[in-house]
Amino acid sequence: MAGGEKAVIQTRDGKIEGGQEEGVFVFKGVPYAAPPVGDLRWMAPQPVSGWVGVRPALSFGNIAPQNAGTRPIGPGLSGTQSEDCLSLNTCSPGLDDERRPVLVWIHGGVFNLGSGSMPMYHGGRLAARKNVVVFTIDYRLGMPGFLNLKEATG
């Protein structure tokens, strides 16, 4: 994260440290559910385990695994691919008690490609210009995200 002061806030699950970019507070790669791996693979998202201390939120989390043969829906698809990809990013013009509209952006990509960390989805400008809090998320894509095996496996 370039420039700006650091900011630590308390969330339901623990403290996170973000920073400022272009005049807004930015927190990246914050988990919103437990990693969907092992016994949690194919299951609905489960609550994230809280943490002790301050969790860095200065860089984007993992992106969902994607077929190397597909082209991203826009420039800038990068990052480590992992099933442990359930994280969110947020941009806010302030960390005060002011009431602001909230926009949650779920990236497109026909449920097979893309990421909430793609530069074209960064919410900093919108947050600054319209005094709105912007969230982007990464979620499971393809079969790990949408294949329902309940009837086949019980």
Question: Could you characterize the architecture of this molecule?
Answer:
The chain has 154 residues and is α/β, with parallel strands linked by helices. The protein has one domain. Helices cover 10% and strands 25% of the residues. The protein has three helices and seven strands. The radius of gyration is 16 Å and the shape is globular. The model has no long low-confidence stretch (mean pLDDT 88).
Protein traits:
alpha/beta, 7-stranded mixed beta sheet, 154 residues, 3 helices, single chain
The residue fraction in helices comes out at 10-25%
Could you say how many structural domains there are in total? 1
Structural class: alpha/beta
Mean of residue pLDDT? Answer: 88
User: Spans of 5+ residues with little confidence (pLDDT < 50)?
Assistant: none
Q: What general form does the structure show? A: globular
Task: Give the distance, in angstroms, between the N- and C-terminal Cα atoms.
Answer: 45 Å
- Total helices: the number is 3
Strand runs, count: 7
Task: Itemize the secondary structure elements and their pairings.
Layout (H helix, E strand, L loop, with lengths): L5 E5 L4 E7 L2 E8 L22 E3 L30 E6 L9 E5 L17 H7 L2 E5 L4 H5 L3 H4 L1
Parallel strand pairs: 2-4, 6-7
Antiparallel strand pairs: 1-2, 2-3, 3-5, 5-7
Question: Can you summarize this structure?
Answer:
With 154 residues, this protein is of the alpha/beta class. The chain has 3 helices and 7 strands, in the order E-E-E-E-E-E-H-E-H-H.
